[in-house]
TrEMBL record:
Gene3D superfamilies: UDP-galactose 4-epimerase, domain 1. InterPro entries: Ergot_Alk_Oxidoreductase. It comes from the Bacteria. This is Uncharacterized protein.
Length: 111
């Protein structure tokens, strides 16, 4: 089974809203990795994406979406998971622990 995290206005959320920084902190703790979230200027983000081959329009849209999420858009909790799956949503902490135990973020899983 594949776990999917859907962000935004779909009406499908986890059991609570978390920030990018909190999500990264939970993943770092579960994996024993020293990782952090760095919030950069949206234009700098677009420039970096374009430098890596992302079309400028796509990079701007993604920067807008990520900025809106960072600013709290879609932070409300919705009932899409119980309606769609017939069960409560999983806690992000539980998803992270399971994924880390399965090696999902290990260097070998990226091959």
């Amino acid at each position: 089974m594949t776990s999917v995290l859907i962000l935004g206005g779909t009406g499908t959320t986890g059991s609570r809203a978390i920030s990018f920084g909190e999500a990264v902190g939970l993943i770092g703790s579960a994996t024993g990795s020293a990782i952090r979230h760095v919030d950069i200027d949206p234009e700098a983000y677009v420039e970096r994406q374009v430098a890596h081959g992302v079309p400028p329009g796509v990079a701007r849209v993604l920067a807008g979406v990520l900025g809106a999420i960072r600013d709290g858009s879609g932070a409300s909790i919705a009932d899409g998971v119980p309606r769609a799956l017939g069960r409560p949503p999983r806690r992000f902490e539980d998803f992270v622990a399971e994924a880390a135990a399965a090696g999902r973020w290990s260097p070998r899983s990226r091959r």
